[in-house]
Amino acid sequence: MVNIFQHANQALITGQAITFCIVVSTSGSVPRRAGAKMLVWPDGRIEGTIGGGATELEVINRALQIKPGDLPKIHSFDLKPEHGLACGGSIQVYIERMSPSERLFIFGAGHIGKALAGMAVRFGFNVIIVDDREGIFGESDLTAYRCILASYPEIPASLGINESDFVVVATYEHKLDIEITAIAAKEYPLYIGLIGSKAKLALARKRFTEDFNLTEELIDRIDMPIGVAIAAETPDEIALAILASLIDARNRSRGIMPKK
Hints:
By secondary structure, the chain is an alpha/beta fold. It contains 8 helices and 11 strands.
């Protein structure tokens, strides 16, 4: 027997969005009873069935039309001859898009990076923190989020950063920060931010143009200086300001706008 929930969990773990469909109630003659389940992938593939035929095709079509941020909904279908169906009954199908936790790549496991990682996990981010210093990760880090010990600045290109990801760059060296940001920015993550002073960021802009051939449009997508503008001083306070920017970007991508 296909375990729908195992397949759904595996899809989410590997970063795939899927749509969950379940028959919640029926009346009359129907091919499947309440509890029949089906998963729909973005490319139209399915796992499981809610009964096949034209009704299942319509459920798949509606599942594919759901956008990120859309609320779950119960859809009703008549399986009657006048609708081209012979069963004669009706079904109600609950359809919900299930999205994986947003990946947050943090480059730099210093005081700010670790503080941000700890906070972001609590707000549902799938945190991947990267550093090249031996011994930088303790046991508590290894159990709290994914830790990658790898060389800068080559590592960003091998991580598969995509348009739904979040990137924060806060290493121990300005030169590395600029190079990592330039490489990651070319993948067009949903959010990318660079930590630094006004002088460092002015230099970064110059290098982005002259050394990395980034367009002005791409440079303008980089949040610098990173974080919401509050009077922050300690690593925890700075991390909180950055987290606020991440949450803002995530919610705006879901169609949730600030309350006035």
